[in-house]
């Protein structure tokens, strides 16, 4: 099979799996609180990444880094998986999945905003238009289409969903300068982030239990939101002739996610959600249209995920 065909297969598999994650979050939260879901999913993800490194013959790489690089993993592990998923999963706990998922998708616009002070990038008129378009979509979703009533369905939940984009954008910026093996780096981030997750869970989780459906959901999230899918995406970028050929597949994810949310979670998808999501994606496309597509080997070309 041609490398580009393999790249498309990996890319499509990644998009399909990421598109199910919002549903998996919401279904799992019926049986586990958000702290327990994060703890169990993080353990599964760490185990999966170790297995992947073992199969790749790279397990020794975990012990080959400098103290400075391990300190970097402590910082990155605090941001992801700990802080990012605490905020994101609480947002899913408070909001319908059809609201939390599109709002979290605005991380690319948040990244553009943070790049101005942190990366000293200049803001252009196209950036401003993109932000206005995307955040108008956020407003439409958050008000359920009542754009003149200025009434938000759940202000705290909306704030958390948007706050998660800030955390992820920070993580993305700090992670792009990391020249370690990407799978090993992510594995170490989860290793150092797990103690934060465990302490938070012990402090704030009350009703402990091991419901089979909740554990199955946590395992699914750990494998296909945090772990294996990242490796699929890296392979898609590596095999593709250009990042753009597989990168654009990501824009299918939020729309497919709404289909899964409707059929698996049972939410009736509102017209305002569809309109708002179209505006969010349109803003991201406007913002990215001015950028030269990075090469597949560029750390900035892949990130680690497309938010659920």
Q: If you had to describe this structure to a student in words, what would you say it looks like?
A:
This protein has one domain. It has 14 helices and no strands. The radius of gyration is 19 Å and the shape is globular. About 4% of the residues have low confidence.
Using only C-alpha atoms, the radius of gyration works out to 19 Å
Main sheet, how many strands, which sense, barrel? none
The general outline is globular
Compute the number of helices.
14
Number of strands: 0
Low-confidence stretches: 292-304
**Number of separate structural domains:** 1
Class inferred from helices and paired strands: mainly alpha
Give the distance, in angstroms, between the N- and C-terminal Cα atoms: 30 Å
How do the helices and strands follow one another from N- to C-terminus? HHHHHHHHHHHHHH
Indicate the percent of residues in helices. Answer: over 70%
